[in-house]
Amino acid sequence: MFSGIVEALGKVVDIKIDRTNVDFTLECPFTSELSIDQSVAHNGVCLTVVSIKNNCYVVTAMKETLDRSNLGCLKIGDEVNLERSMKPDSLLDGHIVQGHVDQTGVCTNIEDVNGSRYYTIEYDTAQGNITVEKGSISVNGTSLTVCNSENGKFRVAIIPYTYQVTNFHSLKVGDKVNLEFDIIGKFIQKIASAYLK
C-alpha cells in the first residue's frame, strides 16, 4: 500500500530482457535501506526488489505489468518516481494507492500558469474507469487532485516543488503515463453498475 507521495527519483542504469520479463536495474538515494522482497512503487507500479548490489537494485516486470503500464517504454538514463510502501503508523499525506496500475493515459497538453503547470491527460474509457472533479488520481505514482474532469480526459495541477522532485519535469506532450484510479471510486462504480442494470 502506498500514499502517492513520491519519495525519490530513481535512475534506470540497466535493462535486461528475459523471455517475456524485463529486469530493471535502478540506482536511488535509499538503495542502502532496501531489502530483498521489499515492495517499491516505480511510476506507481508495485515491484519486488529481487537483488541489491552496491548502490543499485533490481526489480522484474512481467508481461502483464509491461502491457498495462509505461515501464516497457523506459530507457537507460530515464528517471522513475519511487515510493516505498507505507508503514501502518505513517501519515496518509496523499491517498490510498495500491501500486496496481489500471491503464495508461497520454499527456496531451502542458500549460504553464506563472510557475505552476496544468497537465492534460487523456485515456481510453473502454475499461470503464472514470475521474470526478476534485477526486484523487495517481499519475506515474504521484497522488494528485483531478480538475476539469471530462469523459476520458482530466487535468492535474503541478506546483513547482512537485515538478522538481518527480519526473513531471521531464514529461512531454505525447508521453505515456501510468494511471491508477481511486480505489473507493472503483468499488462504488462496480457496485452501482451491478445494481443499475
Task: Write up what this structure looks like.
The chain has helices spanning 63-68, 160-165, 183-195, and strands at residues 8-18, 21-27, 39-42, 45-53, 56-61, 79-84, 103-113, 116-122, 136-139, 142-150, 153-158, 176-181. By secondary structure, the chain is mainly beta. The strands form two sheets. Strands 1-2-5-4-3-6 form a six-stranded antiparallel beta barrel. The longest helix has 13 residues, at 183-195. It is globular. The model has no long low-confidence stretch (mean pLDDT 93).
Number of strands: 12
Q: What is the overall pLDDT average?
A: 93
Shape: globular
| Uncertain segments | none
How are the strands of the biggest sheet laid out side by side? 1-2-5-4-3-6
Helix count equals 3
Secondary-structure blueprint of this entry?
Elements: E1 8-18, E2 21-27, E3 39-42, E4 45-53, E5 56-61, H1 63-68, E6 79-84, E7 103-113, E8 116-122, E9 136-139, E10 142-150, E11 153-158, H2 160-165, E12 176-181, H3 183-195
Antiparallel strand pairs: 1-2, 1-6, 2-5, 3-4, 3-6, 4-5, 7-8, 7-12, 8-11, 9-10, 9-12, 10-11
